[in-house]
Amino acid sequence: MTVTDLVSYEDALASYDPVMGLEVHVELGTKTKMFCGCSTELKQDANSQTCPVCLGLPGALPVVNEIGVESAIKIGLALNCEIADWCRFARKNYFYPDMPKNFQTSQYDEPIAFNGYLDVQLEDGEIFRVQIERAHMEEDTGKSTHVGGATGRIHGASHSLLDYNRAGIPLIEIVTKPIEGAGARAPEVAKAYVAELRELIKALGVSDARMEMGQMRCDVNLSLRPNGTETFGTRSETKNVNSLRSVERAARFEIQRHAAVLSSGGTIVQETRHFHEEDGSTTAGRIKDNAEDYRYFPEPDLVPVAPSRDWVEELRKGLPELPRLRRARLKEEWGVSEHDMQSILNAGAVDLIVATIEAGAPADQARKWWMGELARNANETGRGLDELPITPEQVARVAALVAKGDLNDKLARQVIEGVLAGEGDPDTVVEKRGLKVVSDEGALSTAVDEAIAGNAAIADKIRGGKVAAAGALVGAVMKATRGQADAARVRELILEKLGVEG
């Protein structure tokens, strides 16, 4: 089904009620893998970080990573989950071309954390509670690179390359209960949930949660049911969606696709789907297995995990300030409205502004530059704010140069432009481009004299009491100095020379 075959979103919601389930996989930031001592360092030579355990060689025995268990408990606590007194691992069996032992060590009916919730804030300030079914521990698979095809997928490829460096990296899978009642806002709820979860994971310090690097990815399960009914429809599962925008787009596309199939008398196939960034569409993957098809059974080589209550409570006391509470505090400290705080959040600027303030910038200046000039550049280049090649420390330095009087706002924007272009740090850009404010009294006085002489009629108006006309002379001086004069001082000099009280 192509994008043009879809029914409109409005028509889909007029007849059907969407139900979602979101499964988010988070790669933990441990130094070693979940069941062996191999390094998890990124960007190493293929298959250089492997051992008999993560390669699944006969006789190799796994050992649980304690930090991985600790991270799982922290996530569970932050998600308001119950933490199991006793749980164990299971083998999930099916054909894994990129898992050498041909099963995944995971948790099935005995997860370490279960029955929680996460409150998320939508763009208009509404709070929507997403119920959490479970958070369980497992390991990642290796990486397949399909060569020779046009799409980078296995279909049409001539051969595949396998890298097992990622096999065994600790994962936490967070599974929601069915998300009902979102209606037309279901895609927005999906995006807001994953965004809030990402902030939570980063705040806990258990993962960098960089979606573009695969450290956090979301499977979007979606089904439709006729309005006014209770029975769930057949679901599809769009796999490994790796950006907030794409989560929203995938949910929206699937709502429209399901509605088109159902409205034409067709049947939804329970299957996995691939998401395509270029047009926001999904295409069929494989028929989706049910739990019984995975032939789960308890992992015989690992002892059960039984975290003591004292340990759990110690971890609970050590949890950092959680994102929603932190945002409420920052909103108060910065003196911004709910709308402005939501805009900052939507732009992904909270941490950047905090870091800029910590680097010495006043709060209002940090917000001004990130939400103004830098947000504009990010929008124009299609990047996130955190992807721009400028640091909070550099933004703070620009703000300091403005406060010192070495730059005005116009020049500061040029400095930021230079930093983004890779010309160096702010001081280097100022030096290379010759962007300092002209504050030399002699040079300013000469420029003012020339502006008055060249605009005699305007000067006469000012002498006659029309002080507002001074703006035209200020503009002439700024033009003559290429915007590098101190505008406030220029105005003072104009009025002094014309004998007019400011």
UniProtKB/TrEMBL annotation:
Its EC number is 6.3.5.-. It catalyses: L-aspartyl-tRNA(Asn) + L-glutamine + ATP + H2O = L-asparaginyl-tRNA(Asn) + L-glutamate + ADP + phosphate + 2 H(+); L-glutamyl-tRNA(Gln) + L-glutamine + ATP + H2O = L-glutaminyl-tRNA(Gln) + L-glutamate + ADP + phosphate + H(+). InterPro entries: Asn/Gln-tRNA_amidoTrfase_suB/E, Asn/Gln-tRNA_Trfase_suB/E_cat, Asn/Gln_amidotransferase, Asn/Gln_tRNA_amidoTrase-B-like, GatB, GatB_Yqey_C_2, Gln-tRNA_amidoTrfase_suB_CS, Gln_synth/guanido_kin_cat_dom. Pfam families: GatB_N, GatB_Yqey. Keywords: ATP-binding, Ligase, Nucleotide-binding, Protein biosynthesis. SUPFAM superfamilies: GatB/YqeY motif, Glutamine synthetase/guanido kinase. Residues 351-498 form the Asn/Gln amidotransferase domain. Belongs to the GatB/GatE family. GatB subfamily. Heterotrimer of A, B and C subunits. Allows the formation of correctly charged Asn-tRNA(Asn) or Gln-tRNA(Gln) through the transamidation of misacylated Asp-tRNA(Asn) or Glu-tRNA(Gln) in organisms which lack either or both of asparaginyl-tRNA or glutaminyl-tRNA synthetases. The reaction takes place in the presence of glutamine and ATP through an activated phospho-Asp-tRNA(Asn) or phospho-Glu-tRNA(Gln). HAMAP family: GatB. This is Aspartyl/glutamyl-tRNA(Asn/Gln) amidotransferase subunit B. The lineage of its organism: Bacteria, Bacillati, Actinomycetota, Actinomycetes, Kitasatosporales. The gene is gatB.
